[in-house]
Design goal:
- The chain is of the alpha/beta class.
- The chain has 2 domains: about 90 residues, NAD(P)-binding Rossmann-like Domain (Rossmann fold), CATH 3.40.50.720; about 70 residues, 3-Layer(aba) Sandwich (Rossmann fold), CATH 3.40.50.720.
- It is built from 7 helices and 7 strands, in the order E-H-E-H-E-H-E-H-E-H-H-E-H-E.
- A 5-stranded parallel β-sheet has the order 2-1-3-4-5.
- Helix 5 crosses helix 7.
- The protein starts with a strand and ends in an 8-residue tail after the last strand.
- Keywords: Oxidoreductase.
- This is D-isomer specific 2-hydroxyacid dehydrogenase catalytic domain-containing protein.
- Belongs to the D-isomer specific 2-hydroxyacid dehydrogenase family.
Length: about 180
């Protein structure tokens, strides 16, 4: 039976799917495995799911001769030596759109928090200074606001799409012209 190492904790439904193909060894987290621990766990594994904290390079691959796939739970492969994997016949996969929408959501949430002075208001309440409603932290709204985005790659486009509901103009600067419709 195949051995699959998950370098970070993942959702149970992912583990359930992987268990149909092999024995899963998942990091319980929350801290990542150190490089020595990961290499030790992968020395007889056929697959590893790697995240941003793992470095998969030639030295790591030398210690893991049975490895056949590095499944990157990332949108890129900066921490995976694809050439070293290719030379050893180890397949590499990534998820190019893995975090685009969640990151765009957080961006819009931070924009709202900044406009509405949420953090200073939170600190004020937690310091025990709240004594009834005052307009001090009311802030402004994104509704109808002109918002500028620098960079209109997948993330910039996702932010602009999410801002559509606020009804304001969306401006961007990028080397390519986009259709925002």
């Amino acid at each position: 039976m195949e051995s699959i190492v998950l370098a970070q904790p993942v959702e149970n439904n992912v583990v359930n799917v992987l268990e149909q193909s092999g024995v899963v060894d998942m990091n319980p987290g929350p801290e990542p495995f150190g490089s020595e621990e990961l290499a030790h766990r992968c020395q007889s594994a056929s697959a590893v799911m790697a995240f941003m904290t793992e470095r998969i390079d030639a030295e790591f691959l030398d210690r893991c001769p049975e490895l056949r796939i590095v499944a990157g739970a990332l949108k890129g492969y900066d921490n995976i030596d694809v050439d070293a994997c290719s030379r050893r016949g180890v397949a590499v996969s990534i998820v190019p759109d893995l975090l685009t929408d969640p990151t765009a959501e957080l961006t819009v949430a931070m924009m709202i928090a900044l406009a509405r002075h949420s953090m200073p208001a939170d600190r004020h309440v937690r310091a025990g200074k709240f004594n009834g409603w005052r307009p001090t932290f009311f802030g402004s709204s994104l509704v109808g606001a002109t918002v500028g985005i620098i960079g209109a790659g997948k993330l910039g486009q996702a932010v602009m799409r999410m801002l559509t509901g606020f009804g304001g103009p969306r401006l961007y600067h990028d080397v390519k012209r986009l259709s925002l419709e």
